[in-house]
Amino acid sequence: MPLYEYDCQECHQQVTIWKSFSDTSSPCCPVCGSQNLTRLISRVAIVKSSKDRVRDLSWVDKNVAHRLRKQADGGLSPAFEQTLDKMESQ
Ligand SMILES: [Zn+2]
User: Cα–Cα distance between 70 and 10 in angstroms, integer?
Assistant: First the structure.
């Protein structure tokens, strides 16, 4: 299942939402229930049965994290910085 990360415009929480490919409904903030969410990043869930795929996605994650950091130029929220740290340490 794909993982979606959003910034809630109502309560300003960063939320992570798992959605199946067939679920086309608008995502709700799990904190306040608002649908006023801004998409941050997305990545495909790692398939554990495929070692190659895990390695490839880790590599992609690192690149994405690096690029996001560069683009944001220090303007990231602490929570998002943590997410990037996790991506880079995989
Ligand atoms: Zn909210």
Answer: 27
Summarised one tens digit per residue, pLDDT across range 39-87 is 886 555 444 555 555 555 565 667 777 777 787 777 778 888 888 788 7
Neighbours of 31 (CB within 10 A): 13
Domain ranges within the chain, ordered by starting residue: 1-45, 46-90
What is the CA(9)–ligand 1 centre distance, in A? 7
Contact 15, 42 (CB under 8 A): no
Whole-number Å distance, alpha carbon 2 to ligand 1 midpoint, is: 20
Strands 14-18 and 37-43: unpaired
CB 24 within 8 A of CB 11: no
